[in-house]
Write a structure and sequence with these properties.
The chain is of the alpha+beta class. It has ten helices and 19 strands. Strands 1, 2, 3, 4, 5, 6, 7, 8, 11, 12, 14 and 17 form a twelve-stranded mixed beta sheet that branches. The protein has a five-stranded mixed beta sheet with strand order 9-19-18-15-16, with no helix packed on it. A two-stranded antiparallel sheet has the order 10-13.
Length: 338
């Protein structure tokens, strides 16, 4: 089994136990399933769990430069390649704009070539790599406001990141030499599926394609609009985009960040001050949201800048980021010249 296959399998919920005896790259992705599975998950037949679901990944096969689009099962054992098996576009941006019927796609899976993840030699890519806009919201968790000793905001405030900061779910984060205070913050990211302008909060979620895990890395000693949020590799995302049909309650998912095995952040999306539907509604009053646009919804308490004493990232640190039902990432901080 290749190292990449083992890593890919451990990205997704409900699989492999840790294997501490293996090399770091072979065991850093721990089991992501919650200790208390929901009743809905328990009710799903085992045979249904192993079929690829609407959990989309981008990848390249070994010795190829062609980008491919795939779908992975909930237990991470099975995958199908949509690029060659259907009329689906070979990349996520084009696929989102196709507005493919998910019901039809799931019905057709049984007739596709289903492969064992272990048998495919591939390199996992960011599930989306060329969004038109990446917009983050500041101070959107009650406990994050509390740790900063600031009042809960009455209106959301936003910042932007650039697409050049995107990196993969198992790729390195480069500690730029000009940045001395590099901080972390696990966030739930919304991927837009439809173009919208002045959409109501009631209709907002109907314009969403799916959700994924991100780490909003920031150099706090740099001016944020100039580049503190947008240095290269400062936006790990993935491992997949989970279609909204597989996330029935987006407002009740736990979020965790661990640094070198030490748990630093624990929170829940239920503690968001401004919920996802409101954020989409508010943003759409100012600008047009387009398919593939990413909205970062804020991070819970525990970022390094607000710990006592403060604790920023440094080369050699290992960041594990996970959100219930969405998956897990693991990124190592390295020297900018390594």
């Amino acid at each position: 089994m290749s190292a990449f296959m083992h890593l890919l399998r451990n990205f997704f919920p409900k699989w492999c136990l840790p294997r501490p005896e293996r090399h770091l790259k072979n065991h850093i992705f721990r089991q992501l399933q919650t200790n208390h599975p929901t009743a809905a998950l328990v009710a799903i037949k085992q045979s249904e769990q192993v079929l690829p679901k609407c959990r989309f990944m981008q990848y390249r096969r070994a010795n190829e430069q062609v980008k491919r689009l795939g779908m992975v099962s909930e237990d991470g054992n099975k995958m199908v390649e949509l690029s060659s098996m259907t009329c689906a576009a070979p990349n996520m941006m084009d696929f989102i704009q196709q507005r493919y019927c998910m019901v039809s796609l799931l019905d057709s899976v049984q007739f596709m070539k289903i492969e064992d993840v272990d048998a495919v030699d591939l390199r996992l890519l960011p599930p989306i790599d060329s969004p038109g806009k990446i917009i983050g919201v500041d101070c959107n968790y009650v406990d994050n406001c509390d740790e900063q000793h600031i009042s809960i905001p009455r209106e959301p405030s936003f910042h932007v990141k650039f697409a050049s900061s995107i990196t993969g779910a198992m790729d390195n984060i480069r500690a730029h030499s000009l940045a001395k205070h590099i901080d972390y913050g696990c966030q739930l990211a919304v991927v837009m599926g439809k173009k919208c302008r002045e959409v109501s909060a009631k209709e907002a979620l109907n314009h969403v394609f799916g959700f994924m895990v991100v780490q909003d890395i920031v150099a706090r000693d740099w001016n944020a609009p100039l580049g503190g949020h947008s240095m290269d590799t400062f936006l790990p995302l993935g491992p997949t985009i989970v279609h909204r049909c597989h996330v029935p309650d987006i407002n009740n998912l736990w979020i965790k960040t661990s640094i070198n095995g030490e748990e630093r952040q624990t929170g829940s999306t239920r503690n968001m001050i401004f919920k996802i539907d409101f954020l989409i509604h508010r943003l759409s009053q100012y600008l047009t949201l387009c398919p593939g646009d990413i909205i970062l919804t804020g991070t819970p308490a525990g970022s390094g800048a607000f710990r006592h004493p403060s604790c920023f990232l440094k080369p050699g640190d290992l960041i594990e980021s996970e959100i219930q039902n969405l998956g897990k990432m693991c990124n190592k901080v390295v020297n900018s010249y390594s």
